[in-house]
Design a protein that fits this description.
Helix content is about 15%, strand content about 35%. The chain is α+β, with helices and mostly antiparallel strands and about 140 residues long. The N and C termini lie far apart (about 30 Å). The radius of gyration is 15 Å and the shape is globular. It has one domain: Nucleoside Triphosphate Pyrophosphohydrolase.
Length: about 140
């Protein structure tokens, strides 16, 4: 949960770290689980000028690599310092509270391919969601 919205595990790459190594490390840090065979699905750019995110106005823009994995091993952590881990059933995703851009990304990932995505917000409203299938 991030300010009342469900968000997937994630974080920033460390110096010299590849995106795929970052997703495995961050997922393990936040959940206790080790992802097996993560696959790049999208690169999303979030332009945040004019956006309000968690009470902060105009947060930094960011570029996010989005991976998909279906297998993992390990034991879940009781709780991470940043957030409580919960599992959401696929059937409940449509009614789960999440940021509008995250919802559109999740819907897009139902399609095959790798995508480049651009989002623009004004305050909490998603103004632009553009994408191109690149693979």
């Amino acid at each position: 949960m991030h300010h009342g919205f469900h968000v997937p595990p994630g974080g920033k790459t460390k110096r010299g770290e590849r995106g795929i190594d970052c997703v495995v490390r961050e997922f393990k840090e936040e959940t206790g689980l080790t992802l097996l065979h993560p696959r790049l699905r999208a690169i999303a750019t979030f332009y945040n000028q004019g956006r309000i995110l968690g009470g902060q106005e105009n947060p930094e823009d960011w570029c996010v690599e989005i991976y998909e994995a279906h297998d993992y091993f390990g034991q879940t952590k009781e709780e991470h310092s940043k957030a409580k881990l919960i599992w959401i059933r696929d059937a409940d995703l449509k009614t789960t509270r999440m940021y509008p851009g995250d919802r559109k990304i999740l819907e897009l990932l139902a399609e095959e391919g790798v995508f480049e995505i651009l989002t623009r917000y004004h305050k909490e409203e998603l103004l632009t969601f553009e994408y191109t299938r690149v693979v």
